[in-house]
Amino acid sequence: MGRGWNLKEANVVCRNLDCGSAVSVVEREESSVRPVWVITSNCVQSGSSLSDCARSVSSSFIMNLTCSDFVRLVDGTSLCSGRLEVKSDQSNQWWSSVCEDDFDQQDAEVVCRELGCGAPSVLQGALYGEVEAPMWTKEFQCGGHESALLDCRSSGSARNTCSPGKAVGLTCSESVRLVGGDSRCAGTLELKHGDWRPVIGSGWTLKEATVVCRNLDCGSAVSVVEREESSDRPVWWIYSNCVQSGSSLRECARSYSSSYFLTLTCSG
């Protein structure tokens, strides 16, 4: 089990397993206690190996991780941006970038969905650099509704060449929204990270709230208020210092149960 784990720590595991990028990390409770390894998030973030971070305890909680396996975005500013790479051969386990001529907006919608991110916002060749010309040799033919890129049809004909500087660079948006307010720029902050849940934050100020407002194209934050409901429900807990570090909200989120949630008002 992990303490304080979010997608950043889960991504270390996915990369170690050559399984693409982390899509979700959930703490699950079993019916009985058993021996487990506790691994704290700050130990993983320090660069130590998982084995160096592990200590033995007994617990009924375990971690469930989901990795993207076939696709990943590399060298971007978050798990939802970067140069697109696909696993070229499921048995040989090597990765290849994709030529922008073989990839369109509908393909991008599928990749963003598969990675658990929001809709594609930027699709541009060479946006995140490349060391060599893309090597993936087939064109994806997605309808845009598929849940994974591997479900899409691809052309049978192979592309012989693709010039350097033509690798697909992709940025997916954050899946955030404000609900229950007078406009789309005010209300309870919700984040989609597997499912839609309200957000509760530790130490949030107008600085963190403005990140959300700008993601929604709603200007700057006017107010951020913590409200309480009558009972606990599943929420996403997001620390302010994680948002301040430049990480995406999704990367900062960890599963929690609380009767508190945040409401935001943006300038709109």
Automatic annotation (TrEMBL):
Keywords of the record: Disulfide bond, Glycoprotein, Repeat, Secreted, Signal
Disulfide bonds: 43-53, 142-152, 242-252
Organism of origin: Dicentrarchus labrax
Compartmental location: Secreted
Domain SRCR: 1-69, 71-173, 176-268
UniProt name for this protein: SRCR domain-containing protein
One Pfam family in the UniProt entry: SRCR
UniProt cross-references to InterPro entries, sorted A to Z: SRCR, SRCR-like_dom_sf
GO terms for cellular component: membrane
